[in-house]
């Protein structure tokens, strides 16, 4: 069962008979991720298949309420998590399912992040009814995107294009594109794949063309710190390789003090040779300056590799780079 909840002080109550309550945002993508988590929980713990054992509680977040403004102008990534964190700490939900790219590098006291599901394809996709690629769009064409990471990389490659704020769920963005509000948009392949909407893709952008967001394509699950029962439920769901790579990327982001206010990208992968390879990028929003770095090493050194890459770029750009 899915319950919709407006979270203000004290309004969200826990379902009485539920063994486990999942907290999530209410977008179609967020719900798809919550149901995927529920399916995996039941697969790992058959006793949770009983009716009402797992409940999904939909929580409206600040990030969902101000769709006419860029995230950078209203507080950044934490807007998608703080109401869910509050419900979790209050005991109204037991675990919370997040798109990891929306989760700040700091977690509230009392919240832990022990589990990540297997990562989806991390690439971005180009969608347009007017061209097959960014390069084919005529000068002055408008790209709809709320991501400064995408904006900076688009303008670095195609400075004659324009990028305008373009928020909302996947369905609303595609509708606006069809209505001609913008000429093209970029979305994450992972989200389209999880909702069986890949038929809308014009072209998949390779990593060398558009470096993904830190933690793109990864689903993370948080618990209350010390909640042994929930930790045991989640233990068989954790995908070790995904967590290693995302931890590397988030360490890079943390050293740069990254948020939705800063154009930062990062990708870590573990090759068939067992070596972890990381690429990181930081840029000015207008794409006029782009700095990149790379690291490789043992997966067990993932956090140190990501942090070192972040320290390098932080020193290179200085304190006034984004001013």
What is the secondary structure topology, with strand pairs?
Layout: E1 2-5, E2 20-24, H1 28-44, E3 54-59, H2 62-65, H3 71-74, H4 82-89, E4 95-99, E5 111-116, E6 124-128, E7 142-144, H5 148-157, E8 162-164, H6 170-178, E9 184-188, H7 189-194, E10 203-204, E11 219-224, H8 228-234, H9 240-255, E12 264-270, E13 276-283, E14 290-297, H10 302-317
Helix pairs in contact: 9-10
What report would you give on this structure?
The protein is α/β, with parallel strands linked by helices. It is built from 10 helices and 14 strands. It has a 6-stranded mixed β-sheet with strand order 1-3-2-4-11-5, sandwiched between helices. Strands 8-7-9-6-10 form a 5-stranded mixed β-sheet, with helices on both faces. A hairpin with a 6-residue loop joins strand 13 and strand 14. Helix 9 runs parallel beside helix 10. It is globular, with a radius of gyration of 20 Å.
What is the spatial order of strands in the main beta sheet?
1-3-2-4-11-5
Bin the helical content: 25-40%
Shape: globular
The end-to-end span amounts to 47 Å
Radius of gyration: 20 Å
What is this structure, in a nutshell?
Helices cover 30% and strands 23% of the residues.
Which labels suit this protein?
14 strands; alpha/beta; 10 helices; 323 residues
